[in-house]
Write a structure and sequence with these properties.
By secondary structure, this protein is an alpha/beta fold. It has helices at 41-48, 118-140, 158-169, 184-190, 222-230, 254-258, 273-286, 289-294, 304-309, and strands spanning 2-9, 12-19, 30-39, 64-72, 82-86, 101-104, 110-111, 150-152, 174-178, 194-197, 213-218, 232-240, 262-265, 296-300, 319-323. Strand 14 (296-300), helix 9 and strand 15 (319-323) form a beta-alpha-beta unit. InterPro entries: Acrylyl-CoA_reductase_AcuI (IPR014188), ADH-like_C (IPR013149), ADH-like_N (IPR013154), ER (IPR020843), GroES-like_sf (IPR011032), NAD(P)-bd_dom_sf (IPR036291), Zn-ADH-like_protein (IPR051397).
Length: 326
């Protein structure tokens, strides 16, 4: 099978596209012929070695995959069935989606939801799945469209783009935060009513600011998350699902004890199956697939390594799908 293999020799990490012996596939009771994967920042880190996201070597990266069951020892999955996998450490601790075959435990699989193609499921991928988990958390917290605008940071990225599309279709007013002024038209096409500069949130701020947001979806962390909490309305909900700006959280307890703000952590990797299935079904119902297509770019498996190396040098927005089968 063809695949991207990341190896480590002493401290040197290298990634190559090569023929891999199928006998090297890891343990699992379902083998999937991978048709589509997606490209995420975590895959950039895995391929370039810029951060130690890979836990064992050699590793096939790719934190998402969608394909057709090739063989199965799990009665829930039959040969020829279309399935997808996101999370559970694939591409980090278990071989992932950047190879023509993958072998995984059946417990990790999700049957491809009716109404989605495999390509569309990977255009959504971990990023869109995470965005849906954030939206569901806001709903569980009682946030309704009449309460005011929802702030979405990292708006041009995968999570942010899908979150804007979901929230706008559900009737919420969305304010998008981006460091790229040229992305404003794109974000408004997705459904944002206004686009705010990243610089407004990225520096140290006051413990409490003016109440502006009914809720927020944050992928940045650090000062941005602290400033969002400080300017969220009474009883508002803030979901935290990323650390693009850093792992630290330089905040005070003031928003929580004086305004009743709730900070909700979102983890898409080990998300339990009932909520995982609910999120995928909601994505079918609540995501405008035409908007999904406008935010999606496609590359081939042959392009993955070069794309990772050049990631910081080009303007990437929305989602990138990887066509695995040649």
């Amino acid at each position: 099978m063809r695949g991207v293999l990341v190896t480590k020799n002493d401290k040197d990490i290298s990634a190559t596209l090569q023929d891999i012996d199928e006998q090297q596939l890891p343990e699992g009771n379902v083998t999937v012929r991978v048709h589509w994967s997606s490209f995420n920042y975590k895959d950039v880190l895995a391929i370039t070695g810029k951060m130690p996201v890979i836990r064992s070597y050699p590793m096939v990266p790719g934190i998402d995959l969608a394909g057709v069951v090739e063989s199965s020892d799990d009665d829930r999955y039959q040969v020829g069935q279309e399935v997808l996998v996101t999370g559970y450490g694939i591409g980090e601790a278990h071989w992932g989606g950047y190879a023509e075959l993958a072998r995984v435990p059946g417990d990790w699989l999700v049957p491809l939801p009716e109404g989605l193609t495999m390509r569309q499921s990977m255009a959504i991928g971990t990023a869109g799945f995470t965005a849906m988990l954030c939206v569901m958390a806001l709903e569980r917290g009682g946030v309704t469209p009449d309460q005011g605008p929802i702030l979405v940071t990292g708006a041009g990225g995968g999570v942010g783009s899908v979150a804007i599309g979901l929230l706008s279709k559900l009737g919420y007013e969305v304010a998008a935060v981006s460091g790229r002024p040229e992305a404003a038209d794109y974000l408004k096409e997705l459904g944002a009513s206004e686009v705010l500069p990243r610089s407004e949130f990225s520096e140290a701020g006051k413990p409490l600011g003016k109440e502006r947001w009914a809720a927020a979806v944050d992928v940045v962390g650090s000062h941005t998350l602290a400033n969002i909490c400080a300017s969220t309305k009474y009883d508002g909900i803030v979901t935290a699902c990323g650390l693009a700006g850093g792992m630290e959280f330089p905040a005070t307890v003031a928003p929580f004890i004086l305004r009743g703000v709730t900070l909700v952590g979102i983890d898409s990797v080990q998300c339990k199956q009932p909520r995982r299935s609910e999120a995928w079904q909601r994505l079918v119902e609540d995501l405008d697939l035409a908007k999904l297509e406008t935010m999606t770019n496609e590359i081939q498996l042959d392009d993955v390594i070069e794309t990772a190396k050049n990631w910081g040098q080009s303007d990437h927005r929305g989602r990138v799908v990887v066509a695995v089968q040649s």
